[in-house]
Amino acid sequence: MKLSTRTRYGVRLMLDLACRYGDGPVYLKDIAVREGISEKYMSQIIIPLRSRGFVRSTRGAHGGYSLASPPARITLRDIMEPLEGGSALVDCVNQASVCHRSPTCATRDIWTMLGEKISETLASVTLEDLVRMSTEKMENNITQNI
Q: Are strands 55-58 and 64-67 parallel, antiparallel or unpaired?
């Protein structure tokens, strides 16, 4: 299993916003520079996150993007679902009709269980957790380089 670039970049975008939560709107171009991702690609990624209500946009000279909710209330599953389309590993998990073997397929049960575990894990990690992890990693890196 491999997550799409869209999802990985979307999580990075949301982590950047979470790190600046409460500081006001952030320009997308600034996030793109910090993350090393094209602004054009970021503008496509932010659309489903905004439409789901996770990101707020503000127009004007002091405009930009900000989280619509505190980082503790947004999970990785919240971010992944609109970008990746959920955590089902194979099509037959969500639509048994796509495969005539679905009713008797033991492997479908494994894919279902695995998808549920992935979903549970993603739901257990918030942006606040990621901010904390990121901060700890940066502090450890600085300490090791001194």
A: antiparallel
Residue 144 included in any domain: no
Mean pLDDT of the chain: 91
Q: Which residues form the domain of 30?
A: 5-133
Kindly report the pTM of this predicted structure.
0.87
DSSP 67: E
- Helices 39-51 and 76-84, packing angle to 10 deg: 110
What is the number of domains present in the chain? 1
Q: Name, in order, each residue with C-beta under 8 angstroms of 54's C-beta and a sequence gap of 6 or more.
A: 14, 67, 68, 69, 74, 78, 79
Phi and psi at residue 106, in whole multiples of 5°? -70, -35
Query: Which of 59, 62, 63, 65 is CA-nearest to residue 14?
Result: 65
Give the CA distances from residue 16 to residues 21, 55, 80, 91, in Å, rounded to whole numbers and listed in that order.
Answer: 9, 12, 16, 32
